[in-house]
Amino acid sequence: MDIFGTILAPFKWLVSAIMLGFHDGLSFLGLPPENGWTWTLSIIGLVMVIRAALIPVFVKQIKAQRGMQLLQPDLKKMQAKYKGKTDQLSRQAMAQEQMALYKKHGTNPFSACLPMLIQMPFFFALFQVLSGVTQARQAGTGIGALSHEQVVQFDESSIFGAPLSASLLHGGGGDQTVVWILSIVMILAMTASQFITQKQIMAKNMSEEAMASPFMRQQKMMLYILPLVFGVGGINFPIGVLIYWTTTNLWTMGQQFFVIRRMPTPGSPAAKALAERRAAKGLPSQPLLGAKKDADVAAEVAAVEVKAQQRIQPQRKNRKKK
């Protein structure tokens, strides 16, 4: 087993165990254990467990994204302040002020990617489980927490005549026309849900300052690049993996809709719409998630700036001794 496989081994066991738990529960309720829809609902149950466990991380991601948007005006001023200064002291002072800004807004550039990074081992583990089902069946072994009998059962299960372990690129038995049609529909649903989720953030949940920032230009690039990457990669995904990723995208879309409607970014169109709705009901405005921190943190940032300016002041090399 290679290093990548060794790292994914516990994730493969956990993913397959959760699927098996839902499968056994649904079978106990009366669904046919060999039916493809029973396994499909088990994959959806896997999504629900993983995404529910990631809710605290999602809250941190929202706060980090909010903080990144709020610091853009200050970051732009800081970049203008050090524009053209390439000496080491200036670069060091700029780095210190930038870290102070991140601390002030309670964010950093990597926090926004945390939920996706956490999900990736589970995604790759599920991919290996579903794509390895046929091989495990032929070898007479199990895979993860699935026994050989359950591997055979899963490999023979299908929806609309398309096996869950089949993919657009590699086939995998069943009606190949149905496999192609279902794979294409699922790939389009996967990429569309991902695009809509990011689009609604930029259209409704960003302030005017954030929309005009360099950070926003990067976001616009990712808006089109990520769905394209997953769309192209989707031709290699088993149908079960496409079901998983589409379901998790729909979950994300629902979470984003709730956050944008109930806890929008200050200064964004969604925040103005929330204020109007509350005013129409005669309710006072409420604090919004991601608001700037107190003045003591701002004072700390100012202190860092003063210290940095003092460090880059020119000093005379020759001083007269008294």
Structure keywords:
14 helices, single chain, 71% helix, 322 residues, elongated, mainly alpha
Summary of the model, kept short:
The protein has 322 residues and is mostly helical. The protein is 71% helix and 1% strand.
Kindly describe this structure:
The chain has 322 residues and is mainly α. It has one domain. The chain is 71% helix and 1% strand. It contains 14 helices and two strands, in the order H-H-H-H-H-H-H-H-E-E-H-H-H-H-H-H. A two-stranded antiparallel sheet has the order 1-2. A hairpin with a 2-residue loop joins strand 1 and strand 2. Helix 2 (36-53) packs across helix 12. The longest helix has 29 residues, at 176-204. It is elongated, with a radius of gyration of 26 Å. Mean pLDDT is 78; it is low at 287-317.
Give the CA-based shape. elongated
Number of strands: 2
**Largest sheet descriptor:** 2 strands, antiparallel
The radius of gyration computed from the alpha-carbon positions, rounded to a whole number of angstroms, is 26 Å
The low-pLDDT segments are: 287-317
- Distance separating the two termini: 74 Å
Mean pLDDT: 78
Structural class category: mainly alpha
User: What is the strand arrangement across the widest sheet?
Assistant: 1-2
Query: Strand share of the residues?
Result: under 5%
**How many domains is the backbone divided into?**
1
Order of helices and strands: HHHHHHHHEEHHHHHH
**Roughly what percent helix?**
over 70%
Tally of separate helices: 14
